[in-house]
Design goal:
two-stranded antiparallel sheet, mainly alpha, 15 helices, 3 domains, 7% strand
């Protein structure tokens, strides 16, 4: 389903700016970024430039918001990035939120205008950060993710996952500003980097592990009972599977309506051909 979403996005851009190849080099991507964000060619990136770019190329449904999916759709097509890079950069810029608005960019530095060379370097550093942190940039199976997560969370190699392991992980990987706490935005960014998931699932894990708190101290899991590696993997697997099931139900309302709605399903497919992918997914 997700890959089809990207294909449709690129078909849309083929009629406009066109989609870039995955093989284009970083300098070309940065050039395109300047082209898109210095609309009036005055050598500065201002709010009016950002507003034009966002409204014209990101807000697909024109609801005044840009979701993570819309952003990733744009970046994978326009700049030839993988969905993993695009997701990470989205979350860096938008502080882990599911969506953002044009108004969120109406801040002093954009009102004044950022010189093009500075804007270009900031964008470069986001790519460098993704690479330096060794963020996942390929598809991982669920078993690969579970193995990776277990290895990270058994820091002392004692074949158990305990509070000390969690403390080490939070301090060294999640607490980006070293203030002794982890925010939801920090958690989401690290989870996406470490396991190649999207922000939607990363936010779901935050809710599952923390109860949806705004922030947690690095020792939040102190006192938790130690688990064997197998137990820990089973718990994390359950989170993945529950999320997948909830997403499937959300994406496939027609199936859950019962067999008596067959005619409605057929009409739905005829009226909106793009939703065929969801209908097929529902009947797998």
């Amino acid at each position: 389903m997700f890959s089809t979403f990207f294909v449709l996005g690129c078909l849309h851009y083929a009629a406009g700016q066109g989609c870039s190849q995955l093989s284009i080099d970083l300098n070309k991507k940065l050039d395109l970024g300047i082209e898109d964000n210095d609309v009036n060619l005055d050598g500065n990136v201002s709010f009016s430039d950002i507003k034009h770019d966002t409204e014209e190329y990101y807000d697909y449904n024109h609801d005044g918001k840009v979701t993570e999916k819309e952003w990733v759709r744009r970046w994978t097509c326009r700049y030839g990035d993988t969905q993993y890079v695009a997701t990470y950069i989205y979350l860096v810029i938008n502080r882990g939120l599911e969506s953002t608005t044009v108004a969120s960019f109406d801040i002093p530095m954009f009102r004044t205008g950022i010189p093009v060379p500075v804007f270009r370097e900031v964008n470069r550093q986001r790519y460098v950060e993704f690479s330096t942190k060794n963020c996942v940039d390929r598809y991982l199976t669920l078993d690969e993710k579970l193995e990776l997560n277990a290895n990270v969370n058994d820091f002392n190699n004692d074949s158990t996952v305990n509070a000390d392991d969690f403390l080490h992980d939070l301090q060294n990987n999640y607490d980006r500003d070293n203030d002794g706490n982890v925010t939801e935005a920090e958690w989401v960014l690290q989870w996406v980097c470490a396991y190649g998931d999207d922000g939607y699932f990363a936010r779901y894990t935050w809710s599952e592990f923390t109860g949806g708190r705004q922030t947690i101290p690095n020792n939040f899991f102190a006192g938790d009972t130690a688990n064997t590696i197998a137990q820990h993997k089973a718990k994390v697997r359950k989170i993945y599977e529950t999320f997948a099931e909830e997403q499937k139900e959300a994406d496939c309302p027609a199936k859950n309506a019962g067999h008596g709605q067959k005619e409605n399903v057929q009409s739905f497919i005829v009226v909106a051909a793009v939703h065929v992918v969801f209908a097929v997914f529902c009947h797998i």
